[in-house]
Design goal:
Number of helices: 4
Radius of gyration: 24 Å
Shape: globular
Number of strands: 13
Order of helices and strands: HHHEHEEEEEEEEEEEE
Helix content: 10-25%
Largest sheet: 13 strands, antiparallel
Strand content: over 45%
Distance between the termini: 69 Å
Strand order of the largest sheet: 1-2-3-4-5-6-7-8-9-10-11-12-13
Length: 278
């Protein structure tokens, strides 16, 4: 009889331990922010490339209608912009170079860039169905290298932007790399009628993305409220997205109310965390 009591007591204790372990697992809080941080790092710069290039292209005669006027270095020395001289004679496609130099220069958004963006325009950029491809050549932003191909296709007042084989990486110190691809619909909501002033350009982005974070985990992104990128702010200032990391539940990223700052929030199962944009 005593042995049975001991056995029952042991079983009771074991069962209680199992319940305790299960309870602890249920109460574990998901605090994974790496995917959101890595996505925002790639997202911010890749989505900047179109507005930055557009700010130069809309006032460059060689890109608008292939009339060469020698308007290099239109706005400032960072970047130095120029058109391939051969294109002034041969017509489209026209290649526009945005050269940040080999040592780098500081742009209007305060970030230091070096290398080059080579933009190839298949037709006049002011035509409703214009198409262009951007190539990143030894292109670095604040020490992070960005690689990939950016393709844009105009359709009236909207643009479809596709980034393929995107990569953001750092080789110094503790090396890491992030893989990133996206398909976006872009709409310019401000600055379209002031070609001589690229600083007032504002764009909205919708669409999807996917990638692999620096820890080797995949993630998927779906924009639920248009993301806003302005020429004057180095960060995405507004918009929301749903982000689903590998093996984790979907969480919401909120970039704010339009204020230019480096803050965004991540909400996971009712728990909200703030993280810093890069």
């Amino acid at each position: 009889m005593m042995n049975k009591k001991i056995a029952l007591t042991c079983l009771t204790i074991a069962a209680a331990a199992v319940v305790t372990i299960i309870s602890c697992k249920k109460e574990e809080v998901d605090t994974e922010t790496v995917s959101a941080t890595d996505n925002s790092l790639c997202e911010g710069e890749f989505l900047r490339i179109l507005p930055a290039t557009n700010g130069v292209a809309v006032d460059e005669p060689g890109v608008i209608d292939n009339r060469w006027a020698g308007n290099n270095n239109i706005f400032n020395a960072c970047p130095h912009d120029s058109i391939d001289p051969a294109d002034t004679l041969n017509g489209f496609p026209v290649t526009l170079y945005l050269d940040y130099g080999t040592t780098g220069c500081v742009g209007d958004d305060g970030k230091t860039r070096k290398g080059m963006i080579r933009a190839v325009f298949d037709s006049a950029w002011n035509s409703p169905n214009a198409r262009a491809t951007f190539y990143l050549e030894n292109y670095y932003v604040n020490g992070v290298r960005f690689e990939g191909t950016v393709q844009v296709q105009k359709n009236g007042n909207t643009i479809t932007q596709t980034i393929t084989d995107g990569k953001c990486s750092k080789t110094s110190g503790n090396p890491w790399e992030i893989l990133w691809n996206c398909t976006r619909t872009v709409r310019q909501v401000s600055g379209a009628n002031s070609a001589t002033d690229p600083t007032d350009d504002e764009f909205e982005f919708t669409g999807t993305a996917n990638g692999t974070n620096r820890e080797g985990k995949t993630f998927d992104v779906n924009i639920t409220s248009p993301m806003v990128k302005t020429a004057q702010c180095r960060y995405i200032t507004k918009g929301t997205m749903e982000l689903t990391p590998e093996g984790r539940e979907t969480r919401t990223v909120n970039f704010g109310d339009g204020t230019c700052d480096d803050k965004a929030t991540l909400t996971i199962k009712g728990n909200t965390f703030q993280f810093t944009l890069q």
